[in-house]
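Hi all, posting the design record for the shared folder.

TITLE: backbone redesign
STEP: 1 of 1
STRUCTURE INPUT:
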């Protein structure tokens, strides 16, 4: 719009003094450049721009003395707004004069009583700006910020160097997403699959950048890219400024296209959900346990958990053929990448030599057990995790007999939902059952028609589905009796006899 206004100002004078044929040519060119409607363009070029007027002191009704007296009244009223101050001025003047605080001249008093609320606002602009201090910075609109962040799809990576991460949040709300609950921030490197997890006590952009900075310090490689979804906790100026300060490329996926973030979405289930389950975790205690669990989990997953990586995908008609690289841990992929520096290789080799996978798994199991005790699940029936490492190792030989051994994976038994409204057929259930026993071939529609004939006006057609469900139960009971009833009357023959 600013460029168009400059163009209008440059062409207007030439257009107004040109002959008719020249005006047509200028108008055609102006419409082609700006895209304006021809009639709107003619009005713009014909309009005579009036010089802007500055302040007109000759029309000012209230001088500095009136403004100073108004400031005193505003301060005495505890800096209330003009709409509330306007009706208070007569009462405030009388009270302050009565106690000898001010003695305004009659002309000044008349001006104060005559001022409107809008005039009071204009007179107090300078005083209010001084009392408010620094104004809040006007933030960039969420839509404008989102448009300024480039989109990156699943096919746009093209073998990036280690350090380009996808990020996502996993909520631990349990079955109901109500109230405050913990979140897990997941970072996954595209090139190597290196994954970092960190808990968030609540969703807040400043807390998010603090956690990101802490994770950044523990990464074995330099963070080069940060790709997220369109969640508002990522799409804000705080995260934008953090990426700009760290020279990190900030990109986002397409809205409602989760496949654009397939790498981190896969880790959400294979790591976070598999380790901590789907239960509700809230409060400082749960967040602290999650942080301790993730401290051991990051080493166990990145150094001792091989994963597949897609090498090629092609389509042969309706058949999709995929080829994967050989399974490798994120540490092995990082060491094998030619873009990894020698210092990173030495540090990874040193850390790997000091790690004990059994000890790490023991710490993970203890963290899972602590999470299960504070989650919204039933009390655990499996034996607790042994504190001694040698006993834990001995238990691994027979752990397969207990089935699922992760404490966080044991879900609470689902309670059967009770009836929410009274049974509409309670008074006639016995009568319907007798009719069914007498004529078991009757359909639900026929039984309801007979019920409506015997009790007119009491049972509407909307009860047809209820009658059919009741009939289904009775038929199942009758079929069970027909099949297993004769067997109950014959003596059983066991192999031992």
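Okay, here is what came back for every position:
SEQUENCE:
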């Amino acid at each position: 719009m600013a460029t168009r206004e400059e163009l209008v100002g440059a062409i207007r004078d030439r257009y107004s003094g040109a002959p008719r044929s020249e005006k047509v040519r200028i108008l055609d060119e102006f419409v082609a450049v700006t895209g304006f409607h021809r009639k709107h363009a003619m009005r713009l070029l014909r309009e005579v721009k009036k010089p802007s007027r500055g302040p007109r002191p000759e029309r000012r009704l209230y001088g500095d003395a009136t403004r100073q007296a108004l400031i005193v009244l505003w301060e005495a009223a505890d800096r209330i707004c003009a709409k509330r101050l306007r009706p208070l001025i007569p009462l405030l003047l009388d009270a302050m004069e009565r106690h000898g605080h001010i003695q305004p001249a009659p002309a000044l008093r008349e001006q104060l009583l005559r001022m409107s609320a809008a005039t009071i606002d204009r007179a107090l602009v300078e005083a209010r700006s001084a009392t408010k201090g620094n104004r809040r910075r006007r933030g960039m609109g969420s839509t404008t910020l989102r448009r300024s962040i480039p989109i990156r799809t699943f096919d746009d990576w093209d073998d990036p160097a280690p350090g380009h991460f996808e990020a996502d949040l996993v909520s631990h709300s349990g079955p109901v997403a109500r109230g405050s609950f913990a979140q897990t921030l997941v970072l996954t490197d595209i090139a190597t699959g290196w994954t970092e997890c960190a808990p968030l006590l609540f969703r807040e952009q400043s807390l998010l950048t603090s956690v990101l900075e802490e994770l950044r310090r523990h990464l074995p490689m330099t963070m080069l890219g940060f790709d997220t979804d369109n969640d508002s906790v990522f799409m804000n100026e705080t995260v934008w400024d953090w990426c700009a300060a760290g020279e990190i490329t900030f990109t986002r996926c397409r809205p409602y296209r989760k496949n654009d973030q397939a790498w981190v979405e896969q880790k959400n289930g294979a790591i976070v959900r598999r380790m901590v389950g789907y239960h509700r975790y809230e409060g400082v205690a749960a967040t602290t346990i999650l942080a301790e669990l993730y401290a051991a989990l990051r080493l166990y997953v990145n150094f001792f958990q091989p994963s597949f990586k897609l090498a090629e995908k092609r389509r042969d008609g309706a058949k999709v053929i995929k080829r994967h690289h050989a399974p490798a841990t994120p540490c092995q992929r990082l060491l094998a990448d030619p873009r990894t520096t020698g210092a990173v290789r030495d540090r990874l080799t040193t850390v790997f030599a000091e790690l004990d996978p059994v000890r790490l798994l023991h710490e993970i199991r203890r963290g899972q057990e602590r999470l299960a005790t504070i989650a919204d699940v039933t009390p655990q029936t499996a034996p607790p995790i042994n504190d001694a490492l040698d006993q834990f190792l001995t238990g691994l030989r027979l752990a397969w007999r207990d089935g699922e051994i992760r404490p966080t994976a044991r879900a609470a038994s689902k309670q059967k939902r009770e009836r929410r409204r009274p049974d509409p057929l309670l008074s006639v259930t016995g009568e319907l059952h007798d009719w069914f026993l007498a004529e078991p071939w009757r359909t639900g529609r026929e039984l309801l028609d007979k019920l409506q004939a015997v009790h007119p006006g009491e049972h509407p057609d909307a009860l047809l589905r209820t009658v059919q469900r009741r009939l289904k139960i009775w038929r199942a009971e009758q079929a069970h009796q027909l099949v297993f009833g004769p067997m109950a009357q014959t003596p059983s023959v066991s192999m031992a006899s």
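COMMENT: DSSP finds 20 helices and seven strands in the chain.
Let me know if anyone wants the other runs.
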